[in-house]
Design a protein that fits this description.
Helices cover 35% and strands 28% of the residues. The chain is globular, with a radius of gyration of 16 Å. The termini are close together. α1 packs across α2. By secondary structure, it is α+β, with helices and mostly antiparallel strands. It has a 7-stranded mixed sheet with strand order 1-2-3-4-5-7-6, sandwiched between helices.
Amino acid sequence: MTATVHIRPLDPLKDAELIHPWVTDPKATYWMMQGFELQDVEREYMAIAANPHHDAFIGLVDGEPAFLMERYDPAKAELVGLYEPQPGDVGMHFLVAPTDTPVHGFTRMVITAVMAELFADPATARVVVEPDVRNTAVHALNEAVGFVPEREIRKPEKTALLSFCTRAGFEAAVASAEVAA
């Protein structure tokens, strides 16, 4: 699938109306915002914007808003005390906007673009994720772009599968996907 992807910073006040239906959609159950009102989403993303160790972004595909991406410092947010962070670790969350007309390969293209964006920063050595252990669909996507599960961890809101992707692991996964295509 070929598309133009652009990632821009999320503006909590301007973008809350856009992402509210995304994060409250039944398919976004693992974002744990099911009952959120618009003001709750604004508040959540204002808190992220105010946090020097957490950022949120809107991903546009061919000019249309299509996904949400979060980047965080796992040594200072989300995973503090749950694993031994290494220099160059970057945490990530992503959510594809719900659609009535799914496109085969779209979500894989999105996660590949998210990972490329994170690894575009030369300081990023490894991407860390902690999806819910029950989210088997995202585990498969993560593995497809080079993540290796390490272990389950207990967070206050969930049991998560702590997984890591090195730059070399991502590059090998992308090269393998290109050969298979």
